[in-house]
Design goal:
- By secondary structure, the chain is α/β, with parallel strands linked by helices.
- It has eight helices and twelve strands.
- Helix content is about 45%, strand content about 20%.
- A hairpin with a 4-residue loop joins β7 and β8.
Length: about 230
């Protein structure tokens, strides 16, 4: 994981860089304190966390934090020699994820960095899971948890098989899904399923799509299968 150090004291910068690299982080230093937020946001790959000094020449850590939070979700830990509780409160209200005073204890600093990174990773994973449950293609939203499809403000419920058909097609959008693959996916535990059963389900599904204003969404490739 990459951590950006924004600190004007060369000695502290060096100490932080060595500490982070010894803990197997990638550490990158900002030395020019002009358009600092823009420098950080333009980094490729994007940093996973910013260690931000409070008092900097040119612009304050407050200002940098505000600009960063306007354009990104990069977590920020303030490092400062100021111990006023109001300063700490202001930093948190500005969007900082933690606040550590100098001189810092290296093991504690690493522990708190780990906590912030874990919290951010867990939040991003939860967000990714949520996105996976709402799949969108050509303006048609498949709500997997709700068991419905939505388009243009209209919504219709799906049966279990209709939901499974669309879910498989969404996973392979643009590809032809063979009929036999779909039959095995839908009725894996059943000994025999009439091939026409799949056609009936697809026809009903197309009817529900038409009800919400969607036509020609599921394409039949004769002798091959279906695709969206």
């Amino acid at each position: 994981m990459k951590i950006v150090i924004v600190e004007d004291d060369p000695g502290i910068r060096k100490e932080l860089k060595q500490l982070l690299e010894n803990a197997f982080y990638e550490a990158e230093i900002i030395e020019e304190f002009k358009d600092t937020a823009e420098q950080i946001c333009s980094m490729i790959p994007a940093p996973d966390l910013v260690l931000l000094d409070w008092n900097l020449p040119g612009e304050s850590g407050f200002d940098i934090c505000t600009k960063l939070k306007e354009h990104s979700d990069i977590p920020i830990i303030f490092l400062t020699s100021r111990t006023d509780s109001m300063d700490e409160l202001t930093g948190i209200l500005k969007g900082a994820d933690d606040y550590i005073t100098k001189p810092f204890n290296p093991p504690i600093l690493l522990a708190r960095i780990g906590v912030v990174l874990k919290r951010t990773t867990d939040k991003n994973a939860e967000k990714s899971r949520g996105n996976a449950l709402n799949m969108e293609y050509k303006g048609v939203i498949l709500n997997v948890v709700g068991g419905c499809i939505e388009h243009g403000g209209k919504k219709t419920d799906l049966t279990k098989n209709e939901l499974k058909i669309l879910h498989l097609l969404y996973q392979k959008k643009g590809e032809i899904v063979p009929r036999m693959d779909m039959i095995e996916y839908l009725w894996d535990n059943e000994v025999f399923i009439d091939d026409n059963t799949l056609s009936v389900n697809v026809t009903r599904l197309r009817g529900k799509l038409a009800d919400i204003g969607v036509t020609d969404f599921i394409e039949t490739k004769r002798g091959m299968g279906y695709r969206i």
